[in-house]
Amino acid sequence: MAEKSLFDPLPLKHGKPLKNRFMLAPLTNSQSHADGTLSDDEFHWLTMRAQGGFGLTMTCAAHVQRQGQGFPGQLGVFGDEHLEGLTRLATAINATGSRSAVQLHHAGNRSPKDLVPQPVSASDDPETGARGLTTAEVEQLVEDFVAAAVRAEKAGFDGVELHGAHGYILAQFLSPEINRRDDRYGGSLENRSRILFELIDGVRRATGPDFQLGLRLSPERFGLRLSEIVEVAQQILRDGRIDYLDMSLWDVFKEPTEEAHKGRSLMSFFTELDRGEVKLGVAGKITTAAIAQEMLDRGADYVLIGRAAIVHHDFPEKARDPAFTQIPTPVSAEYLAKEGVSPTFVEYLRNTFKMVA
Asked: CA-CA distance, 14 to 244, in Å (whole number)?
C-alpha cells in the first residue's frame, strides 16, 4: 500500500477532491437561532475552520424535520426559510478552497422533551416516551432527508453526510434492541438497515452527478452490535454509491466493548473492509499531528478532527509540524473566544465536556 500523507489531496467519486486529508467533524454547538436559521456566531465558527485549512468543513448535525430537533440552537435544513443562511455559509466555505457539507440529522428518541413534546423513534420507547413511526411516516422521513439534501445542494454545498451514528434515529432503526418493528423496516438486519439504503438511493437520484454523499456510523452503544455494523458498512462500501464513510469511534485506539471482539482495535474492523472507491475516515481523540498520520498509516483515508478543532481553528495548518500537539484543556473562555467560539458554545463546552477553565 502506497504511503499516504495528511497533505495529499483526497479524490472522491463525485465532485471535486479535498485539498488534504482533514475533515472538520460535525460538532454540536447550539449557536444558531431557535427556528433553525443560521446565526452570525455559527457562520463565524464554521468559516474560521474553513480558513484554518480543513479539506472539508462540515456543519453540526442539521435537523431534517422540525420534530427531529436534538438540541437548542440547532441548525435547520427542513425548510426553505433556511436557504438564505445556508447559501451564505456554503458560499463562504467554498471561497476558502475547503469543500463544504451539511450533516443531515434527526434525533428520534433523543429529542429533548422541552424542544419536542412528542419524540418519535423506530418503535415505541417507554424509557423516553417516544412513539414509534408508522410505515407512512418512515417513508416521509426518507423523503424529508432527501429534500434536505436537495436544499443543501441548492444552497451551494458540495455535499451532505447522513448521520447514522450515536443513537440518533437512523441508528435507532439499526438497533435490534430499539427497533421492534414488524414491517419492512424491522426484524432482520436487511430490514433494519433498509432506511439507510433508501436514503442513499434517494439522495443520489435527487441530486447532481458532482454532489458528494457521506455517511457517519458508530459501531457500538445504543443497542448496536459490532458484527452487524461491520456487515452494513461492507455492503455500503461494496455498493459504492457514497463517497466517504465516517466511522465515529470515540477513541481511535480503543478495543471493542463486546467481549467476543476484544484483542484488536475497533478501527481495524473497518480498515480491513473492501472499500473500492469509497474513502474511509475515523474520528475519536485525534489530538496530534502524529496520531492523525498514524491513522492513515493504519489504513484510514482521512481523519475527522473534533475537540482539537474547537481549540485550534487551524489544526490542519498546525499539523504541518509533525510534532504538533493540541493545547491541553480546559482552556479559558477568552482563549476560546479568539478561536471563534461564541459565549453560547462556551457554556455548552463548560457544562458538557468540561473544556472551559
From this structure: 10
Residue 23 makes CB contacts below 8 A (sequence gap 6+) with 54, 55, 56, 57, 58, 246, 281, 302, 303, 304, 305
Q: CA triplet 176, 212, 230: central angle to 5 degrees?
A: 30
Residue 194, C-alpha cell as written in the block: 433498509
C-alpha–C-alpha distance, residues 300 and 279, integer Å: 8
pLDDT, average across residues 73-89 = 98
Cell output for 108: 428520534
Q: Are 245 and 214 in contact (CB under 8 A)?
A: yes
| Cα distances (Å, whole numbers) of residue 241 to 84, 205, 210, 235, 281 | 29, 11, 12, 11, 16
Q: Domain residue spans in the chain?
A: 22-326
Q: Has residue 1 got a pLDDT over 90? A: no
Burial 253-263 (b: 16+ CB within 10 A, else e): eeebeeeebee
**pLDDT over 80 (residue 85):** yes
Angle between helices 135-155 and 194-206 (to 10 degrees): 40
Predicted TM-score (pTM) of this structure: 0.97
**Residues with Cβ < 8 Å from 188, sequence gap 6 or more?**
none
User: DSSP class of residue 298?
Assistant: T
pLDDT > 70 in the chain, percent: 99
Question: Cα–Cα distance between 206 and 87 in angstroms, integer?
Answer: 19
Which stretch of DSSP H or E encloses residue 238?
helix 226-239
- The CA–CA distances, whole Å, from 66 to 89, 102, 115, 124, 144 equal 21, 16, 9, 19, 10
In CATH, what number does 22-326 get? Answer: 3.20.20.70
